[in-house]
Amino acid sequence: MTTNVEQVAPMSTGSAAEAKDIVQQQENDQSEVEVEPATEVVIKKVRKLDMNSYATRKTIGLVLLDLALLVANMEKMKSVIAEGHTHLDFYYFVLVMLVIIAIVQLGLAFILLYVGKLDLTDKTNHWDLDVWNSIAIIAIVAVTVLQIITSSFGAERPAH
Q1: What are the φ/ψ torsions at residue 37 (nearest 5 degrees)?
Q2: How many CB atoms lie within 10 A of CB 150?
Q3: Reduced to 3 states, what is the DSSP secondary structure of residue 88?
Q4: Other CB atoms closer than 10 Å to residue 101's CB: what's the count?
Q5: How far apart, in whole angstroms, are the C-alpha atoms of residue 85 and residue 92?
Q6: Which of 25, 33, 95, 113 is in the most buried spot, having the most CB atoms within 10 Å?
Q7: Domain locations along the chain
Q8: Integer Cα distance of 39 and 37 in angstroms
Q9: Residue 76 in contact with residue 146, Cβ under 8 Å?
Q10: For residue 6, which phi and psi values (nearest 5 degrees)?
C-alpha cells in the first residue's frame, strides 16, 4: 500500500511529523499501525483548474466592464448634446471623440465575445487567440487614451 506523504494531513492532536512517521512505518514494515482515536487523517482532494472555462469567464467579465463604460459614455454624450454647442467650447470635438470611443468599444465587445467562444485547449485556435487578443489590447489602450483626452476637455464652460 503506497500513500503519498504530501496528501496526508492530521486533523486534531497529531502533528505532520507523526503522520509522516506513520506512513513511513506502514510502508517499511508492512505491518498494521494503530492510530489513536483522537487522531484523524484526511486525504486532500485537489481540483484541476479548467483553463478554458476560466478564460471564458474572464473574457465575459471584460465584455461586461466594456459595456458599462459604453453606457457611461452614452450618458456623457447625452449631456454634451443637451448642453449644445453654444454652451460648450469644444462641443464638436468632444462629440466626435465620444462617437469614436463608442464605435471602438462596440468593436472591442464583439472581439472579446469572439475570443471568449474559442476553445483555449485546442492548439489550432492558439494563433487566432493570440492575434485577436493583441487586437483587443490595442483597442483597450486606444479607448483609454481617447477617454483621457475627452475627459480633459470637460463638459463645463470655464468661468470668465
Answers
A1: -65, -25
A2: 23
A3: coil
A4: 23
A5: 7
A6: 95
A7: 5-43, 51-152
A8: 6
A9: no
A10: -70, -20
- C-alpha cell of 78? 447625452
Q: What are phi and psi of 106, to 5 degrees?
A: -65, -45
Cβ within 8 Å of residue 5, ≥6 positions away: 19, 20, 23, 24
Count of residues in the chain: 160
80 in Cβ contact with 98 (< 8 Å):
yes
How far, in Å, are 6, 120, 157 from residue 83 at the CA level? 67, 47, 10
Which amino acid is it at 53?
S
pTM summary value:
0.60
Q: What percent of the chain has pLDDT over 90?
A: 20
In the numeric block, which cell numbers belong to residue 146?
481617447
pLDDT of 47 reads: 72
Q: What is the mean pLDDT of residues 3-20?
A: 51
Contacts of 40 (CB under 8 A, 6+ apart): 10, 11, 12
Q: Are 81 and 95 in contact (CB under 8 A)?
A: yes
